[in-house]
Amino acid sequence: MARPPRGAARLRDAVAPLALGVGGLGGFDVAFPEVVLVVEGQARGIEGVEGVTVVAAPASGDDTIADLATPVSTVVTADRELRSRCEGAGASVVGPRWLLDRVDYGSASRAR
Fold it and tell me: What single-letter DSSP state applies at residue 75?
């Protein structure tokens, strides 16, 4: 199997610290979320790391995300249709800026 794209590994590594505590989530001063990264295509080969569960979408990543959305979920997306589907499942939805303001994507490992 080909090596997963580096961008997927960088994102996984960047979001891992969120599991150690993040503000502005779910109405809590500090929340300790279960971080789930849904991948599709070539990124399906990426493995989880401490703090991040990786779910390989069998087909559409959006369908998998919508299927995983629950009233205790916070989904990060800029896609309007996916936002609507997740909100319909009771999930909270935030945009990419929310995430980018809380992670250090620029210094996440580029070597994995």
Answer: E
Q: DSSP secondary structure string, 33-67?
A: PPEEEEE-GGGGGPPPBTTEEEEE-SS-HHHHHHH
CB-based contact 20:53 (threshold 8 Å): no
Tens of pLDDT, residues 11-39: 999 999 999 999 888 788 898 999 999 99
Q: How far is CA 8 from CA 19, 37, 42, 44, in A?
A: 18, 9, 9, 9
Say how far apart CA 96 and CA 79 lie, in whole Å.
10
CB atoms within 10 A of CB 39: 20
Say what angle helices 61-68 and 80-88 make with each other, to 10 degrees: 30
Name which of 106, 101, 109 is nearest 18 in CA terms: 101
**DSSP at 101:** T
CA distances from 14 to 52, 58, 83, 86 (A): 10, 24, 22, 23
Q: Which pTM value belongs to this model?
A: 0.86
